[in-house]
Amino acid sequence: KDLKKWTDSNIFFQDELREAVLLVFANKQDLPNAMNAAEITDKLGLHSLRQRHWYIQSTCATSGEGLYEGLDWLSNNIANKA
């Protein structure tokens, strides 16, 4: 329900932000019941973001796994937009 609330109120879906990039950190990937990237994509409705650049990075904040990779992706994609 929290994800549904996010998509219903998210300004990222507005036309004014069509050039923005979106990075989603999928945290707690070390836990057995963590949603995978496809499930998160579906729950957030990211497939409806046609012509927009988004990425889901699997992470585990306690170990730091995936954090730098996500920030690298964000940095590279912001630089490509400039």
Automatic annotation (TrEMBL):
<feature type="binding site">
    <location>
        <begin position="27"/>
        <end position="30"/>
    </location>
    <ligand>
        <name>GTP</name>
    </ligand>
</feature>
<dbReference type="GO" id="GO:0005794">
    <property type="term" value="C:Golgi apparatus"/>
</dbReference>
<dbReference type="Pfam" id="PF00025">
    <property type="entry name" value="Arf"/>
</dbReference>
<keyword id="KW-0333">Golgi apparatus</keyword>
<dbReference type="InterPro" id="IPR006689">
    <property type="entry name" value="Small_GTPase_ARF/SAR"/>
</dbReference>
<dbReference type="GO" id="GO:0016004">
    <property type="term" value="F:phospholipase activator activity"/>
</dbReference>
<dbReference type="GO" id="GO:0015031">
    <property type="term" value="P:protein transport"/>
</dbReference>
<dbReference type="GO" id="GO:0003924">
    <property type="term" value="F:GTPase activity"/>
</dbReference>
<dbReference type="InterPro" id="IPR024156">
    <property type="entry name" value="Small_GTPase_ARF"/>
</dbReference>
<keyword id="KW-0931">ER-Golgi transport</keyword>
<keyword id="KW-0519">Myristate</keyword>
<keyword id="KW-0449">Lipoprotein</keyword>
<comment type="similarity">
    <text>Belongs to the small GTPase superfamily. Arf family.</text>
</comment>
<dbReference type="InterPro" id="IPR027417">
    <property type="entry name" value="P-loop_NTPase"/>
</dbReference>
<keyword id="KW-0653">Protein transport</keyword>
<dbReference type="GO" id="GO:0016192">
    <property type="term" value="P:vesicle-mediated transport"/>
</dbReference>
<keyword id="KW-0547">Nucleotide-binding</keyword>
<keyword id="KW-0342">GTP-binding</keyword>
<keyword id="KW-0813">Transport</keyword>
<dbReference type="GO" id="GO:0005525">
    <property type="term" value="F:GTP binding"/>
</dbReference>
<protein>
    <submittedName>
        <fullName>ADP-ribosylation factor 2-like</fullName>
    </submittedName>
</protein>
